[in-house]
Amino acid sequence: MAKIDNTKIIILASDGFEQVELTTPQQKLRDAGAEIHVASPDGNGITGWYFDRWGDETKVDMKIEDVDVTAYDAMVLPGGQINPDVMRGNPDVVRKIKDFAATGKPVAAICHAPWLLIEADLVRGKRLTSFHTIRTDLKNAGAEAVDEQVAKDGNLITSRNPDDLDAFVDAIVDAISGQDAGRGAA
Question: Which end of the chain has less Cβ packing within 10 Å, N or C?
Fold first, then answer.
């Protein structure tokens, strides 16, 4: 894995995020050299969902509304059913995702988190993947929905589920380090 020293990554999440879809990228990206911050809607700690039960609390660094999109090199959106469904109903969250995507820097969403990309009106004409139950939502929003570990289109990186976490993190690192430059949308 390439090193991404001197980079900053923001993770946006609320209670009910899929535990491993936040903690695995957080740790692996930190191991690759990135500084990681977590933001939640109210700035308070958040509790994950661990497959079929409540998981651990995660420390939060700031409110989502206080995130300066120019200060970060990538944004990560963990899934789970609860987290993205709650967050897509929050106009401040949707606006922050849309503003970050407009910078052209990588926005990575896994599992149900592409719901947030749909809500931010970022998926039309894009080739994306997600958890199988929301692929129809992607299609209905104008995306080409595929069943692949990772789908990259422009600055959007998407994955299906926790089984894809290694490929998901690798794609984020590649996008930040520029290793996917010139390869085109996959």
Answer: C
Alpha helices, DSSP H, located in 54-125: 82-87, 91-102, 114-119
| Amino acid, single-letter form, for residue 94 | V
Mean pLDDT for all residues in the chain: 95
Q: For the whole model, what pTM was predicted?
A: 0.95
Q: Are 111 and 133 in contact (CB under 8 A)?
A: no
Average pLDDT over residues 121-149: 98
Rg (CA), the chain: 15
Closest CA to 158 of 169, 150, 166, 147: 150
Catalytic residue among 28, 88, 96, 112: 112
- Pairing between β-strand 107-110 and β-strand 74-77 as defined by DSSP bridges: parallel
